[in-house]
Amino acid sequence: MKKLILFLILIISLSCNSEKEKKNLENTTWKFCGDNGAFLPDVFVFNEKYCSVKNDSIFWNNKDSLIGIVDTITLHYGARRLYVKDLRGNVGRYCEQ
What we know:
Radius of gyration: 16 Å
Distance between the termini: 44 Å
Protein name: WG repeat-containing protein
Helix content: 10-25%
Organism: Epilithonimonas ginsengisoli
Number of helices: 1
Structural class: alpha+beta
Order of helices and strands: HEEEEEEE
Number of domains: 1
Number of strands: 7
Strand content: 35-45%
Largest sheet: 7 strands, antiparallel
């Protein structure tokens, strides 16, 4: 019984870590791979120089210039997909590079 409880705790802790990693956008590059065009850049580079994320908001050059809002981050056959909502409400899909 103790082994089962320890195994379940291990599985839960690993799933929490993978969820954090799935949502981590630091030092990543994303290219537009959607069907329809939202009014967003073709490429997002999340680093100190280009884009930053605070909560779910995406800012340009660590300034207060809001570009869009992170809608969802999903896994698609092991690759992450980033869905960003622009300021007009359109959602664009980005693939991690």
